[in-house]
């Protein structure tokens, strides 16, 4: 079974630039999550999708972050414009349903904002 | 905000020794999960314990949960160098909305 795929693996941008991350969840998984992990901390949930609908985006900085999952499969997370404090690893995870016990994580995208 | 707080922040042991990590949290939970993260890689689910359970085992892992104290512990027995990683507890307050702690960095030396 293929795992959660993310790209790119690394990205370096200047502040105020835009960046987008892509995630392809495990086939058949209805729930998709985006997390932000700052160095030395645990992951923080940014947004949760159930199929193509948002079920929790309470911690997403909506003035600069946006995410979509138009066809209920893969997803993109965008930052526009980026700030220095956005430097982090962005992790995508998926689970079969919202009631599933386990989330499966991708390898992450390491973003550096200069 | 982060709900779980792991203790210690870092732990260094020799192969064959046991490693114990603790997690404290603040609010009522549906379940508590432990994840492992190897350097530069994604997280891997290790074990889940529900709020009505007190102890759970999986291979060399033993997890306890004390809801009255809002705390959990993860014991890794007979540790191996391959267990070197960061370990995170994550609380689920419902509908898989996980809140992670800051993690414990475990170093197992050969």
Can you describe what's shown?
- The complex is a heterodimer of chains A (114) and B (110).
- Chain A is mainly β and 114 residues long.
- Chain A has no helices and eleven strands.
- Chain A has strands at residues 5-7, 10-13, 19-24, 31-37, 44-50, 53-56, 65-68, 75-79, 88-95, 104-105, 109-113.
- In chain A, the strands form two sheets. In chain A, strands 2, 4, 5, 6, 9, 10 and 11 form a seven-stranded mixed β-sheet that branches. In chain A, strands 1-3-8-7 form a four-stranded antiparallel β-sheet, with no helix packed on it.
- The radius of gyration of chain A is 13 Å and the shape is globular.
- The mean pLDDT of chain A is 94.
- By secondary structure, chain B is an all-beta fold.
- Chain B has strands spanning 5-7, 10-14, 19-24, 31-37, 43-50, 55-58, 61-66, 71-76, 85-92, 98-100, 104-109.
- In chain B, the strands form two sheets. In chain B, strands 2, 4, 5, 9, 10 and 11 form a six-stranded mixed β-sheet that branches. In chain B, strands 1-3-8-7-6 form a five-stranded antiparallel β-sheet, with no helix packed on it.
- Chain B is globular.
- The N and C termini of chain B lie far apart (37 Å).
- The chains are: A mainly beta (114), B mainly beta (110).
- The interface between A and B is medium-sized, with 27 and 23 residues.
